[in-house]
TrEMBL record:
GO terms for cellular component: membrane. Residues 26-217 form the Cation efflux protein transmembrane domain. It comes from Caloramator proteoclasticus DSM 10124. It comes from the Bacteria. It is a multi-pass membrane protein. It is found in: Membrane. Keywords: Membrane, Transmembrane, Transmembrane helix, Transport. It holds the Pfam family Cation_efflux. The lineage of its organism: Bacteria, Bacillati, Bacillota, Clostridia, Eubacteriales. GO terms for molecular function: monoatomic cation transmembrane transporter activity. Residues 222-297, 311-379 form the Cation efflux protein cytoplasmic domain. Belongs to the cation diffusion facilitator (CDF) transporter (TC 2.A.4) family. This is Cation diffusion facilitator family transporter.
Amino acid sequence: MTRRLIEMYLKNKTDRKYIGYLSGGVGIFVNILLFIFKFIFGTLSGSIAITADAFNNLSDVGSSVVTIIGFMIADKPADKEHPFGHGRGEYIAGLIVSILVLLVGFEFLKSSFEKILHPSPLTFNIYTAIVLVVSIIIKLWLGYFNKILSQVSSSGAINATSFDSFSDVIITSTVLISILISKFFNITIDGYIGLLVSFFILYAGYNLINETISPLLGEAADPELVKKIVDSVKSYKGIIGVHDLIVHTYGTQKTIASLHAEIDYKTDILEAHELIDKIENEVSKKLNIVLILHMDPVVLDNEELEIIRFKIKDVLSRYKYVLDVHDIRLVDGKHKKNIIFDVVFSNEIKQNDMGKKAHEIINDLHKILPNYEIIIHVDNMYADY
């Protein structure tokens, strides 16, 4: 039923922002409804606990507002100050909601400690139990609703909003269970149960923050996307190999990738340019990205260079931290011929140690290639393929 309602709403709405608006709008409506229901019942019954929980629902409206604002910012077009668009605004919204989840965990941890240090009997009231059960059911549905939306949109912000609802379900369920145990077994354990739940919420909040900070910092490219890019480019006749793939994401709807494509140096320059343009356009449309290709001419009929390539790759295969070697070329120098190539080190090699490692490789190569000057350019591995 829930999925069908979502599909009906999104049927003629192709923009991603509408998913965020739906999540935020439903969240605002549900939490205001719960606030009114609990506030009226808490006031009439004189229950401070229910009244306090009502204002907790009112504060949850803030999470939904943040989600809407995040999607509004992400939907803004590119401008002079932000030429790649504002897509990362959604990540910021997710980060804020994740921090709110973390704050809920800390607050619950604090109140649980207070209950352990100063235990007090819980009073069972059938009306209070009904209010708590209704709240649990509604919040459970809201969490499930947002979980579906997060799966449809792959949105970290909506995923955080979903867990925000589920954390309320856990907390309210803890209160209800504690009341029932206190009623039927005359044992006060709400503080200890609350302690366990608070640790769970804090751990989940920490993971949510990591998930939303990671794309802001610049996380590694999706392996599936990397494979699709590499396989797509290599599938074209005339492409010998690829290297130096870099993928940047500016929100879920904006991905820019750059890649070096190797082409036989004998290929006519106009034909090579036409091929590169064709690949850029077709792969960009196919994968919904912006692909930029750099053409690297490769010499394939130089016997001397082929022998050098073989020797270099044989030596570098002994270095576990060397992931790739490419652009091996032979250039005439003033006194000796220069062998120039790029080498890719694994991330275990620190930036400050790369020069030293490159020098070690050069010394090893000089033993088998003494009549050449060897120049190494060190590359980073930005995408694993």
